[in-house]
């Protein structure tokens, strides 16, 4: 299954942003199961640039789209959990095998609680999933509080914030 994801990174240049994002994608994807737009056999998602300044219109639209996918997946999983809870008692759910409908319950619960994986589409510079807008705001302001921390200067203060999308295969 191919999925569009993106990493938010701090870097001086577009090239540095690509390098920083590669580290994030390497953490998330085993066996290099991601493609930059030049290597991707198909451009499933339309033509996407390698890295975008975070406050560009394209970035804002892509972030909205990615958070929308994450929210949709969360809501679908919650609705399916509700249906299963209404249909099965706790004992049956506890003993359920994965191949039965009630066995799918544990998978759905993991989808609701996951921080990385196919249901999360946007990632912070550390490879953690961004699940909702408030979390995104925190990530964009994350380094503001470092000025004066332990007498050090904020090493991120003069860096730009970039959005780097990738086509990945789970």
Overview of the structural elements:
- This protein has 170 residues and is α+β, with helices and mostly antiparallel strands.
- The chain has one domain.
- Strands 1, 2, 3, 4 and 5 form a 5-stranded mixed sheet that branches.
- Helix 2 runs antiparallel to helix 4.
- The protein is elongated, with a radius of gyration of 19 Å.
Outline of the structure:
The chain has helices spanning 14-28, 57-87, 90-95, 104-113, 133-140; strands spanning 2-11, 34-35, 52-53, 122-123, 160-169.
Key attributes of the depicted protein:
170 residues, alpha+beta, five-stranded mixed sheet, 5 helices, 5 strands, 41% helix, elongated
Quick one: biggest sheet?
5 strands, mixed
What is the H/E string? EHEEHHHEHE
Oligomeric state of the chains in view: single chain
| Tally of strands | 5
**Domain module tally:** 1
**Beta-strand share of residues:** 15-25%
Q: Alpha-carbon distance between the termini? A: 6 Å
Q: Please tally the helical runs, counting DSSP H or I stretches of 4 or more residues.
A: 5
The 3D shape can be described as elongated
Low-confidence spans: none
The structural class is alpha+beta
Helical fraction: 40-55%
What is the CA-atom radius of gyration, in angstroms? 19 Å
**Average of per-residue pLDDT values:** 82
């Amino acid at each position: 299954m191919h999925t569009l994801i993106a990493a938010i990174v701090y870097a001086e240049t577009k090239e540095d942003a690509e390098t920083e994002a590669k580290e994030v994608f390497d953490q998330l994807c085993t066996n290099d199961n991601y493609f930059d737009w030049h290597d991707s056999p198909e451009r499933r998602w339309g033509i996407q640039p390698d890295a975008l300044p975070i406050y560009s219109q394209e970035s804002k639209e892509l972030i909205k789209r990615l958070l929308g996918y994450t929210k949709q997946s969360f809501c679908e999983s919650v609705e399916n959990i509700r249906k299963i809870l209404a249909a099965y008692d706790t004992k049956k759910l506890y003993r359920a095998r994965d191949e039965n409908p009630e066995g799918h319950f544990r998978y759905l619960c993991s989808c609701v609680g996951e921080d990385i994986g196919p249901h999360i589409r946007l990632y912070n510079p550390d490879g953690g999933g961004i699940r909702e807008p408030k979390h995104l705001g925190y990530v964009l302001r994350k380094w503001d509080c470092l000025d004066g921390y332990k007498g050090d200067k904020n090493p991120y203060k003069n860096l730009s914030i970039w959005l780097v999308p990738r086509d990945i295969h789970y």
